Amino acid sequence: MTRRLLALSLLGLFVWILGSLAPFFLRNLRLQQYMENLTQAGQNDTRSADVVRAQVVERARELGLPVEAGHVQAELVGTRWRVSARYLVPVELPGYTVKLHFAPSAGR
Question: For the chain, which residues make up each domain, given as ranges?
Fold first, then answer.
């Protein structure tokens, strides 16, 4: 009986931790998809790197991700953009802070 209780407790803990971390991975995936859409070839793309960077930062803010302009690199190569970002999300768990590192990129 105590083994079952221990196993259920550990399973519950695992599910709770996964539930705490999963939303950030899903938000990062949405940011990645947005960045991929930004890098699609455009014949007359007149946006500056600052504008593209600001678009990525705004989308990250909408998703609740702590991305700042200094975390985003944008470069126009030919008719396609290369965009990448590096950021850290601290997730508070009881007694411990998990630091999730993300580096989405598109257009390479």
Answer: 21-106
